[in-house]
Amino acid sequence: MTFRFLLAAVLSAVLAAQTRMSVDQLRSFLKSSVDLHQPDKQVAEFLKKSKLTQRLSAREFEEFIAMGVGGKTLEILREWMTTTKELPAAPAPAAVVKAVPKPIPPPSEAEQKKILAEATEYALGYSKRLPDFICLQVTRRYIDPSGLEFWRNTDTITTRLSYFEQKEDYKVITINGRMTEVAYQRLDGSTSSGEFGTMMRELFERATAARFEWERWATLRGRRMHVFSYYVAQPNSKWTVSYNRSEVVTPGYRGTVFVDRETSQITRITLEGDMPPSFPVQGAKTVLDYDYTDISGGQFLVPLRAEVRMRAGKDLVKNEVEFRMYRKFGADASIKFDIPEPLPEEQTKEQPPKQ
């Protein structure tokens, strides 16, 4: 599997644009900046270019003081209490009550070995079981030059993805709804490939020598999952990350694998690279979800959604990739390239493990 990171030409426009925030978004932003130990000056400079869309009350101001935000940030917040007096009040944040689930005993060591053996057999044969098909790949790309995870959408790309004889082919159709002839590998910004079997197969191949360990139980899309953590050493890695089409690295990586308890099928893979200190991209990770869909009358477990994140210095990028409208590959196969609404969060959100 391959990730590419290119410094997007839209960066200057992103910096110049003004961010509009609700009080709840401001709350999340400030909490994140405190948790990440972001410099007070940097946070304040970002807020100077932002606009609050709701009234900032004295109660909320005191809440933000208690968070531990810096003095320069507080100056801006104090000014906003005056300038936002005529705006609508923000709704009170909902109280969150977290139930502590009763721990579920892990499988025995023998059972864990059996689960991994069945998952390995499934992963190595996955690509061969897939039919030839086409689908719509929708990629929503975001960037944050502040390094504080306050995302701005830069573009939305629709791609005709063909899977024929176990090989993927990408043809870009539209960028922000406009037809284009740009080749997928020539797109500016960050891209990824290899979601259809490559990522899964390479992880479980014998030569990769991945080290698996039991981690926990989980529930995903209503089904009980075994979750194993794994680690792949750099000499065994085939996963590559490129920067500005000029520098390429093959780092070791680690992550988790979700295995369906009933079917032994793999429904989620997470991956995070151990990036070399000298490489410009210092963070690269992905979450890839699989779900069942109908292709020509048969049910197949295929990629549903991937989220890719990368960091170079302060510059953060995020791609939210969805795979929609699967069709059997053929001369008469057609799909619409209208941009669909994003998938609902519950389709990819992990739930607490069920008893």
Which SSEs are present, and which pair or pack?
Layout: E1 2-5, H1 11-16, E2 19-21, H2 23-35, H3 40-48, E3 50-52, H4 58-67, H5 71-83, H6 109-129, E4 133-144, E5 152-164, E6 167-175, E7 178-179, E8 191-193, H7 198-204, E9 211-220, E10 223-232, E11 240-243, E12 247-249, E13 252-260, E14 266-274, E15 283-295, E16 298-312, E17 315-328, E18 350-351
Parallel strand pairs: 1-11, 2-3
Antiparallel strand pairs: 1-8, 4-5, 4-17, 5-6, 6-7, 9-10, 9-18, 10-13, 11-12, 13-14, 14-15, 15-16, 16-17
Please give a structural write-up.
The chain is α+β, with helices and mostly antiparallel strands and about 350 residues long. The chain has 2 domains: about 15-85, no CATH class; about 110-350, Clam (outer membrane lipoprotein receptor (LolB), chain A). Helix content is about 20%, strand content about 40%. Strands 7-6-5-4-17-16-15-14-13-10-9-18 form a 12-stranded antiparallel beta sheet, with helices on one face. Strands 8-1-11-12 form a 4-stranded mixed beta sheet, with no helix packed on it. It has a two-stranded parallel sheet with strand order 2-3. Strand 11 (about 240-245) and strand 12 form a beta hairpin. Helix 4 runs antiparallel to helix 5 (about 70-85). The longest helix has 21 residues, at about 110-130. Residues about 5-15 have low confidence and may be disordered.
